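Thread: Newbie trying to understand structure tokens

Hi all, I'm a second-year student working on a class project, and my supervisor (Dr. K.) asked me to get a predicted structure for one chain before our next meeting. I've only ever worked with sequences, so writing a 3D structure as a token string is new to me. If someone could post the tokens and maybe explain what I'm looking at, I'd be very grateful. Here's the chain:
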Amino acid sequence: MAAGLRAASIIVSLRGPDGSQVENREWSASSIDLLAAAAPWRTFRWYRSQRHYSGTYWSTTMRDHVIYESRLELARLLFADFDPSVRRVVAQPFLLKAEVDGAVRKHIPDYLLVTDEGPVVVDVKPLHRLSKPEVAFTFGWTREAVEARGWKYEVWSEQPTAELENVRFLSGYRRDWLFDRGLVDELRGADLNGVSLRRAAASLPGRPEEQVRSAVYHLLDANSTPIDYGRRRLLDYTGLLPHDRWLEICRRTGTPPGTGRRERIARSQLFQRLSGLPAESAPDDLGGLDSAEFRATSLRFTALQTPELVHALHQEALTFLASHHIHDEPMTWQPPATLLAGLSLPGSDPAHVDLPRLHQLVRERQHPVQHAAQVLGTTVEAVRHALDEHPAPAPPLTKSTARATGRIRQQARQAIPAERFTRLYLDEHRSLQQIATLTGFSRRVLTDLAKEYGIPLREGPKDYKRRDTVERAWLIEQYVHRRRTLPDLAREAGMSTANMARWAKTHDVPLRPRGGSSHSQVLRAIDQASRAPSILRPALGGQGASERLSRFAAASAYPSLGAAASGLGLNTFTLVAQINRVERELGGPLLVRAERGRPMTLTPLGKKVLKAIRKMQDNTMP
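---
Reply by user tm_fold:
Sure, no problem. This is what the structure looks like when written as tokens:
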């Protein structure tokens, strides 16, 4: 509770049913039964030039008259009477007093509703007055006092005119004792889903048409809807539209996610559609859903929603219901339009709105709904209803704008739906690179699109021609033993070098580092080794093998390796290293190194190797 409101100071005063006053009771100790039985604390009077139209309304819920002080309060009273979860309505229920910021404050709420979900304290105020500091201050400490008891607090403002007019129209047919129960039961048992009111009246030829028509209106009461709003309002909505799901929906629909406000608007609107409660009643950590600024932003957000975003949010709402084991109800419900065909109902008809022109207008101004209503000569409510039923498509984007706003994925989704992606990638066995070349989208975008569609990407080489499978044994023989290059092998197999490299990775064949021996050198070395004496073949496997053997043969004629290096024009260290390598490869010493007074000589193995080298050199001479 805020520091400015002292909880212990909150007291309540009320009038009993007999008119007696009960004053200064502790707020937290006053039971709901006591408050629900109270008479209005403040009554009204009529006088000349009064600013508000007050009066009484016969409530079906209360089976009695309930007072209201303004037409806006009457509108809230109509909605409360239409709501099947509301069990009791008390107007001007009590006087609340509290010490706030060191001063005693007083306030009389407009209504107390006793509902299936618990008490709801309601204040009614026009939308344009909610931003006034004194109003916001009063509603602020009242909300804290009410919610401290675990009750709900609601600030109610203007609702869509079409919805209000329909509720007001149907309120005249809500008094069940005025209708023949037999007639109502017959209509309940008849198959009237989707038929017009005229056909519904004709379906019971033995009944007067006026009575049938009135009974149908009576059945349009909220108790006849296929949605159990009482159950829905008991759900925990804190898990509705989590942040990661909002980001995913924005990514899939190409919608900028914003910095948080758009997400809160979308969540509060889903809450309103699912629960039937005002959007500002949605659970929100930051608060302020009932502010005029937030409502204005919500109106603009609704106007600019694309069909893709509306569909995605609708699916998210159904998923939320399914997570609470609600599978047999639609997201929202309204009476079939055909039921009222041919009737002259109050209000503007949204069906007469020029939709193409409307979609153009809502993307032109800062306040699109008001601007569109003014240009089209209709009401804001008619525009809102039309946009709810037919959201405006997203405007076409340039390539740079699409990239800047993250809309490339959406364009890819439209150009390559799941069916086409499946055909190209799985049926025709095309690679991602080939699909990228065909469609103009990058492999990165295509990879993400495949994951979104649930299409598993093939592991290993991206060679999508089945006839070009590379066998492991062949690759090892050609690449490892024969030391052929990847480009040469790729040309022979009819694929790219990168594809052959991926096959090598699939078969766990390590790739040679760059800068190795060339293909021709390797082929010459292999050919030479195949024709050389067997004693020399172990030393003919590497690059420069013939040169090392020739230098060994030339150095054997000198008295020492130093003298041989000098005579052959070589570095002594280089010559010694090459002869040492030949000795390792052939399995033993070839030279007895020179010592003081004794020149260098050949070992028995060295004599055999020298003889084989001479023979090989003779065979290779032209």
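A couple of things are worth pointing out once you decode it. Residues 307-323 form the longest helix (17 residues). The first strand starts at residue 5 and ends at 15. Feel free to ask follow-ups in this thread.
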